[in-house]
Design brief:
Length: about 120
């Protein structure tokens, strides 16, 4: 389950992860939820392909919970970087900057910037 907003919450039923990245401009553009869904699906696909415990014919392989968190972080961290650009003055200039930042995003940037809290039962 994912609840997105100023703080994003993910849960697999026993673990709750709070992700505190992002920017308020993300909530002011049309399609932000669709972009989030696409980012998560992309990370889920990569996790499935990289899974060493793949079962032939299985629809889902890999850690989808981790993939959902990673996809959410990718978008929200890119949003932070985009919003900090000098040319961004509102939602109209934010969206193209967000697309650029998503294309430029590196794993090191995610690791350095991610604000994560985990509560496990």
């Amino acid at each position: 389950m994912l609840l997105s907003g100023p703080t994003d919450y993910l849960s697999d039923g026993s673990t709750v992860v709070r992700l505190s990245n992002g920017h308020e401009l993300l909530g002011q553009i049309t399609g932000a939820g669709c972009v989030l869904g696409t980012a998560i699906a992309t990370f889920c696909g990569a996790a499935s392909m990289a899974a060493s415990d793949s079962v032939e014919g299985s629809l889902i392989n890999g850690d989808m919970f981790l993939a959902a968190a990673a996809g959410t972080l990718a978008l929200t961290i890119a949003a932070q970087y985009a919003a900090s650009r000098e040319e961004v003055r509102g939602p109209g200039t934010f969206l193209p900057a967000l697309i650029d930042e998503l294309a430029l995003l590196k794993p090191e940037s995610i690791l350095k910037t991610a604000m994560i809290e985990v509560d496990a039962e």
